Every structure is written in C-alpha cells, then in structure tokens.
Amino acid sequence: GIGGAFQYGMQLSITNSPAEYIKSFIRETWLKRYSSSPSEETVTLMWSFIVSIYSIGGLLGSLFAGYFSVRFGRKKTMLFTNSPALLGAALMGFSWLCGSFEMIIAGRLFSGVSGGLALNIHLLYAGECAPRKLRGLFATTVSTAIALGKFVGFALGLREVLGADALWPVLMATNAIPALIQLLTLPFFPESPRYLLIDKKDKEACV
Length: 207
Fold this sequence. Notes:
Elements: H1 5-13, H2 19-34, H3 40-71, H4 74-80, H5 82-93, H6 95-98, H7 102-129, H8 135-139, H9 141-156, H10 168-172, H11 176-185, H12 193-199, H13 203-206
Helix pairs in contact: 1-7, 1-9, 2-3, 3-4, 3-7, 4-7, 5-7, 5-11
InterPro entries: GLUT, MFS_dom, MFS_sugar_transport-like, MFS_trans_sf, Sugar_transporter_CS
Domain Major facilitator superfamily (MFS) profile: 1-207
Pfam family, one: Sugar_tr
C-alpha cells in the first residue's frame, strides 16, 4: 500500500496547506514574466487547474490499469507507477527554482496518472497474493492506505513541518519518498499467482 493507495490519499490532502503560498507564487511568476499583476480570476483559474488536473491524471491512469496489469503483470505495473510519481515529484519540487507554475500543473497530472494506476493495481495485487482466509482483510488495506496517506499529507502540511512558505516545493515533492521505498522493496515480493496461472499459463510458477 505504500506505493499504492497511500500515494493516492497523500496527493489528495497535500495541496490544502500550501494553497496560499502557491497562489502567491503564481502572482509573482506572472508579474516577472509579463510585467503586470494577474487578475484574481486568473490566479483562481491556475489554482483550479493545479487541484483538478490530478483527477484527470487519475482517470487516465485508471483507464490503462487493466491493460497494463494483464500485459506486464501486477508487480511490474506497480513498479511502473513509480515512474510518473517520481517525474511529478521532480516537476513540482523544482517549479519554484525554475519559476514555472506550469510545472506544478504538469507534476500534478503525472502524480494523478500514478495514483490512478496504483489505486487499481494495489487492490488486484494484494487480493490475488493473499491467502484465501485473509483475502477480505487484505482488500481493506486499500481504504486503510488511503486514510493513512491523507493523514500523512495533512501532517506534513503543518507549518511546524513542511507547511512554511519556503518549504512548500519540498512538501509537494514528498510523494517521491513512498515511490522510492516501493522501488527498493517491491522487487523482493512475488508476482500474483492468479496472473501467472491465468494470463501467463505458467502453472509451475503459480504453485
């Protein structure tokens, strides 16, 4: 769940705390770029893009989750979800240094793709790897991971942690941490037995 539904929950809550800082960044960037202050409607529109583009990325990721899970397997797809997560974290983390609020929008889009893929594959992978008696319990780890991700996102957004004006780019890039943890640990996990038997026709590997 660390690289699965946790990512989704974390990205849902992580934008709440730095909202005013990011709006200020949009105003400053616009002023430097065009030598005029943007209207409040423009700032609100850009902020709306930053918030809502995550859902569009999530939709795109969800649409391809089924194909990727059959084509490459549950485990490899879970590993692949870390690529857009890391790319999104890098774009958002360096947006302030590059003076580009468009990088935040692009980063949120890639994070959404990662979240949409991970949320679907997490449920498949955990359920198919679980022993029959524990399958229901393992399926509930999705909602647990989402709730935990939301909590961590809110906690990191506190002003005493990363919610300060100078630290909001770091806060927006923290989703790289669960992605890196999964990249380092998931290769030691098994592939889904159901995938090996039904999709790969490899009964020996399944057993």
